[in-house]
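sorry to bug you again but im stuck and you know this stuff better than me. theres a chain ive been looking at and ive put its sequence and its fold in C-alpha cell form underneath. id like you to explain what the C-alpha cell line says about the fold, in plain words if possible. anything you notice is useful, everything is just below.
___
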Amino acid sequence: MSKVHVMNHPLILHKLSLMRDCQTGVKEFREATREIAMLMCYEATRDLPLKTIQIETPLAHASARVISGKKLAFVPILRAGLGMVDGMLELIPNAKVGHLGLYRDPETLKPVDYYCKLPVDIAERDVILIDPMVATGGSAAAAIQMLKDKGVKHIKLMCLLSTPTGIETVQKAHDDVDIFVAAIDEGLNEHGYIVPGLGDAGDRIFGTK
C-alpha cells in the first residue's frame, strides 16, 4: 500500500493558512503556492539516491555526495498545477516538465482529459504528479493511469489539499503511488469542492474569479 505523507512543518501550515483566507489576494496566494510547493518538493525528494565523488575544497581534498543522476520530471495537471511548478524548479532546475490537461465534469464529477504533452523519455524518469486539490481523487487517479500508460513506473503525487475520499480513491486505483499532501480536509460540499478548503485553486492563482 502506498504511503500518505502529511506535511506538518510549521512553515507549510502557516502559508497554507494564508492561502485558505478569502482575504488573501492573487499575488500573495500565488507566492504562497510556489513556496509551499518548494517546501513539499524538499520532502518528496528525500529518497533521491546519492553517489560519492572526489572534489577539492579551498583547503583540502574531500569526498562529497551528490545526486546520482536520477532523471526527474514534474507533471502538473492543468491549470492549477502550474502554480506549483516554479517553486519545485527552483530546487531542481534540471527536471523536465510535462503537462496533463484534465477537468472535472460539473455534472458527473468525473475526469475528462483534453491535453497531454510529456518529455519523450518520460518512461525513463521518476515523476512527481502535481495536482493542488485532490477532491474526489478521480482526476489524480486518471492522470496517474495516463502516466502509467506511457510507461512511467515510479510516480509520486503531490497536492496541497485532499479529502479522505480523494486519498482512498487514489490508493485503491494505484497502491504503488506515494502521496504528499499539506493537509487532509474533512470532505466535500454538494458542488464537489473541498471543505473548508481554499476555494478554486486555479481561479485564485490566476485571478480569474
